Amino acid sequence: MKNVLIFFLTALAFPAGSFAQAGNKTFGPILFVSRQVHDGSSFGMDKLYAMNEDGTNIRQVITDSFRAISDAKWLHDGKDMVVAADSLFTVNVNGGVKRSFHCGARTVVVSPDGKKIVFDKYLGGTDPPMYSAFRMNLDGTEERELHIQNVSDWSPDGKSLAGWTYKFYPDPPGSRSDNYFLHFYDTNGKVIKTWEQGRDSVQGIWAWHPIYSSKGDRIAFISNKGAERQGIYTMDSDCTGDTVLTSKQYVFNEPVAWSPDDTKLLYNAGPAGINIYGRVCIIDIRTKHVNDITPFNSDSTYSFAVSWRKRIN
Question: How far apart are alpha carbons 102 and 69 in whole angstroms?
Answer without folding.
Answer: 14
